[in-house]
Amino acid sequence: MYKRDVCLSTFSRHLQPLLQRSTTISHLHQIQSLLLKTALHQDPSTIAQFISSLSSISIDCARAAFDHLWPSPPPIFAWNSIIRAYAKGLRPSEAIAMFVELQRTGIRHDNFTYPFVLKACASSCLVEEGRMMHCLVLKMGFGSDSFVRNALLHMYASCREIGFARRVFDEMGERDVVSWSSMIGGYVSCKRPVEALVVFQHMKVANVKPNSVTLVSLLSACTLLGSLSMGKAIHSYIAANRVDLDVALGTALVVMYAKCGDIEKAFNVFTSMNVKNLQSWTVMISAFADHGRPKDAISLFIQMESRGLKPDSVSFTALLCACSHLGMVDEGRWYFNQIENVYHIMPTMEHYGCMVDMFERAGLVEEAYEFLRKMPMQPNSVILRSFIGAYRHHGGAIHLDEDFMKLLIEIEPDIGANYVLAANVSAVSARWNDVAQLRNTMSEKGLKKVPGCSWVEVNWRNMGAISHQMV
To answer: PPR repeats: which residues (predicted)?
Structure first.
């Protein structure tokens, strides 16, 4: 018996590296046979590892293993493992369905069950189901469990039910770094950066040290506020405390500096990152394009491809934007064709918008018009405004389809600038009755064209909106 236990313990220790090396279903089926032969299918941690590895290859195979490894009904740790696998995968709603099935068996849930189901609710923004889980948590006596409370807080914050999230947060007897980070992240996701920073101040008073997740949320808050000085202060904290600059934190710093106007500092952070993922590259490419450095954007895109990274839809949007600003029409056409023909990505509204803008900037209004007409989807208001503005700028060089102006006003009937633009274009074509009608409609609806504005940071404070007309 002693020798058998020693053998099982040895096999259990070597299981994790064995699972990591298993990349096919057949490999994992062999391990499944070993689990049954050695009775390790009754060990909770072993089964959690096995189902997690299996679900990373095929969630359906993980479910089949769950259905056949144990007599009915399986033990609670097996249920938790498969619910967790569904919650982490692309079908989180299946985790909730599994929980409903678990309830029918009469097996008592434990404190590991609820966090996985709540994570599934958060991923799918199923707030009603999340509220029902909250009721069950209280009914079953898990309301004081810190793991469950943090999962509840995260669920409400992810579903943007910030009031309920704050109530859960305030009712916590003890708060760890996960609790504080979830509350700060919730406020940021709800576009309430000031409240996020206030919570961080309370976090410092409570003497809880922020982790990488907290710092990413704080940098996002600075980005929303456009506060470069505050972002620099957080960067200084990261450097002073030797916080590891992982991919998420490094990318958040790049975004903050780029959005707050310091493109050189953004690039310095980017180059200092030891590990970069596709998002890191795309953010930097977009930053160069947004800051009027399209050559750098294209050069970085080429570097990214040479590193073996496959560009995604967002990467191509930044690239096409750069081509537009440089007037590289032929290159823009080539890259646009690459999207679907080489990378098998369906072009999005943003890609078509970049192409229309590129043709307009190059003075190819007629080509922009034909491209717009052949779009497989209805153009949005941004593309329509851009094209109609270009038509007006070029003095009505082509016949403008009046349906475009009607569509723009139909999409955004309460934006005064749309009526002004349509009236100005009608004036170019000497359609004075249409001009009068558009002006009358504006007057009847009480609409006005809102002047453009900017935010300027002065002495650590964002000063009010400054009209371009005032400047």
So the answer is: 75-109, 176-210, 277-311
Q: What is d(CA 231, CA 224) in angstroms, rounded to the nearest whole number?
A: 11
For 457, the 3-state DSSP assignment is strand
Q: At what angle do helices 113-124 and 127-139 cross, to 10 degrees?
A: 160
Retrieve residue 459's tokens.
């002495």
Q: What integer pLDDT is reported at residue 205 of this predicted model?
A: 94
What's the angle, vertex CA 87, arms to CA 82 and CA 91, rounded to 5? Answer: 100
Q: Give me the phi and psi of 467, to 5 degrees please.
A: -65, 140
Q: Does domain 175-275 have CATH number 1.25.40?
A: yes
| 244-248 contacts at long range (C-beta below 8 A, 24 or more positions apart) | 244/212, 245/272, 245/273, 245/274, 246/212, 246/275, 247/273, 247/275, 247/276, 247/277, 247/279, 247/280, 248/212, 248/213, 248/216
Domain segments of the chain as ranges: 175-275
Exposure b/e, 355-365, CB count within 10 A at least 16 = b: bbbbbbbeebb
DSSP label of 454? E
Q: Which two tokens stand for residue 447?
A: 């609409």
- 406: nearest Cα among 390, 421, 395, 393: 421
Radius of gyration of the chain (CA): 28
- Structure tokens, 387: 């094209």
Among candidates 256, 192, 184, 246, which has minimal Cα distance to 214?
A: 184
Spatial distance between the Cα atoms of 8 and 6, rounded to a whole number of angstroms: 5
In whole angstroms, give the CA distance from residue 277 to residue 289.
19
- Helical segments of 307-344, H only: 313-326, 329-341
**455 φ, ψ to 5°?**
-110, 135
DSSP 8-state code for residue 310: P
Distance of CA 338 to the CA centre of its chain: 25
Q: Which two tokens stand for residue 139?
A: 């009914």
Q: What is the pLDDT of residue 186?
A: 95
Q: What is the pTM of this model?
A: 0.78
Instruction: Check residue 250 and give its pLDDT.
Output: 96
H or E segment to which residue 212 belongs: helix 212-225
Sign of the alpha-carbon dihedral angle for 436, 356, 467, 222: positive
